[in-house]
Amino acid sequence: MEIAWQTPANPPERQDYIFRKGRRLVRPYYFEFISHVKNRWAGKTVVDFFAQEFKGRPYDYYVSAVQCGRIQVDGETVPVSYILRPSQKINHFLHRHEPPVMASDVPVLVEEPDVVTVRKPASVPVHPCGQYRKNTVVGILQAEHGLAPLFPVHRLDCLVSGLLILARNATKADLFRQQIEGGMVQKQYIAKVVGTFPEKELLVDISIYYNPREGRSTVEAGDSCQDTPTKGKTASTKFTRIGSNWTHIIVLCEPVTGQTHQIRVHLQYSGHPIANDMLYLSEYVDNRSDVGMSADRAAGKSLIPETNNTYVDDCEETCSKNFSIDPMCTHCPNLAPTGYEEHEEGLWLHCIRYAGPGWKYECPYPGWAFFS
């Protein structure tokens, strides 16, 4: 079988995407992953290393991949019993299936010579990370708008929607980052929360510790009477109630700092978690049906326009005609990798405004922020 290996030099293209039942999927493609052996990996066999560190594929797959040369060490085929040494180069040639995201477009809000701002949909990562490369904001903008290179200047979590600022050159990106790190930029988000929110402005000023193993943050009040230093980072957020109905409150969120999950965990700490944030909501809501529709259904009802692409019928036979099935691939003939049958959920958290010295960029409100 003739294989066309893709590398970062191969840009995403419009035809790489398949739209099906409200999801954006990527046609599977061959890709070369390159890594170097860390000290903690040394001493393991090449098969044991992959099986322990990359558990998305079965052990037998890695045995076959080493035997046929799809996994190489220092550019050479090695036996399955080969022992890894520090700093060695590992190449893994595989058939890559990217997880799906919701099938929203990525509308361009402002296009300037050195800046592009877009309305980021929920569920779409900003840039290549983990299993995502083409199913990212940067990838979609390159494929569908011809915008490249782009340099994201601030973070938006995968499940968060709204304003995303991208510089068109490294110099402009550095300028934005210096202003953000220097506390010269004002950031505004809106969130839909539960609880009876106070009429007056609420300031939450408490440190946050992010646990990467659990993928969540916790507040950390600390104890001045003890010598043990806290692991949390300083975090401060200002909240203002701007709307409500009988069930939910719309809150303006103004983070002074920029820690991981800061708005989400500060709202939880204040007793007003985001109404569809299942990561931080469970402690406050016993019956989740009371808080409204699930996050993914809500995100689908936002004001972000749906894509104009034609959806492909949802059946394996149809899907398999859209790409070449690889006999060694553990995910074929499905488009999405195992474990991604449903698309990611979108939070009721939306970035609406960033402003700095001499500049301001804004994004329209999403549909869930309006009460009928």
From TrEMBL:
Entry's Gene Ontology BP terms: enzyme-directed rRNA pseudouridine synthesis
Signal peptide: none
Catalyzed reactions: a uridine in RNA = a pseudouridine in RNA
Superkingdom of source: Eukaryota
Tagged with keyword RNA-binding: yes
Domain named Pseudouridine synthase RsuA/RluA-like: residues: 114-268
Keywords from the named record: Isomerase, RNA-binding
Any one GO molecular-function label of the UniProt entry: RNA binding
Pfam families, alphabetized: PseudoU_synth_2 (PF00849)
Keyword field contains Isomerase: yes
Family statement drawn from the similarity comment of this UniProt entry: Belongs to the pseudouridine synthase RluA family.
This protein's name: RNA pseudouridine synthase 7
Organism: Eucalyptus grandis
